[in-house]
TrEMBL record:
One GO MF term: acyltransferase activity, transferring groups other than amino-acyl groups
InterPro entries noted in UniProt: ACP_syn_III_C, Thiolase-like
UniProt cross-references to Pfam families, sorted A to Z: ACP_syn_III_C (PF08541)
The UniProt record lists the keyword Acyltransferase: yes
Annotated protein name in UniProt: 3-oxoacyl-ACP synthase
Superkingdom as given in the UniProt entry: Bacteria
Domain Beta-ketoacyl-[acyl-carrier-protein] synthase III C-terminal: 222-309
GO BP terms: secondary metabolite biosynthetic process
Keyword terms of this UniProt record: Acyltransferase, Transferase
Amino acid sequence: MTALRAVSANLPSRSVPVASLQKELDLSDGQLRVMQRVFGLSEVLREPTGTVAELMLATARGLDALRGREHLVRYVVQARTMPAVAPYPVNPLHEVRDALGLGHAQVFSVFQHACASGLLAVDLCGKLLAADGDPDALALVLTGEKTFTPAARTVPGTAVNGEASAAVLVGVGGERDRVLGYATRTHGRFNAALSLTPEVAAQFQQAYPAALAEVLLAAAGRAGTTLDELALILPHNVNRVSWVRLCRDLGIPLEKVLLENVPVTGHCFCADPFLNYRTAADRGLLRPGDRYLMAAVGLGATFSAMVLQH
């Protein structure tokens, strides 16, 4: 059974008020007010210096469980939102692999699920490790991207993007943070993502709550549990209003969703659920045996959820 052996988070040094980004993001006064008052966005984390390789490396070096076990790492996987994060022939993932002394590992990236690719990477690594048959083998999943283009800085009308990163050490078996159920679905009619026509974009907004609810319920069902039995939901940090609406529709108490990072980190691509896990673990919000759910939505439109047991 796939398990998270360790999770680390790296928070950039600079906190930028969303209001100061109004011109950069081409927001009208009205759009800015919606971002702040309706979506609950206040600040976003940005790293003023450094490359995407340095973001990933700083996070990986925060994994105490990796030290002395580098020889057990069979896969190094970058889970990312964007198809390209550096100009050819630069390969940030190879730089990180070499800096960590993991030259023996196989490396590759997944981005097909956009911001839901982090959950995809965990599931995929678990399957690869199980097929290999070595109970001690590990996989390292890395997340975190730079907002290096205008398109990377925001999801129009939805979120402002940040540059926090997370790393996950994946194994097979163990007693903690075991994956009990995973569900994902891509709604192909919205595959144009940021290029949707206004009419289709409106259809996506209308379909969004039911599509997200569908995978939450499916993941819980595959885990043999219900949403009511979950101790905590770790969301993607796009905004607050989408989770308020979803909780209302599903009858979930809003306090069960960890939303405290939404106003202060921004939406950090594939890292969000793992950043929220780190917050929950550090604050003692998860007890041994608790079942919890990670959720993410990627442009395109892929909806994913994963139920785990702490």
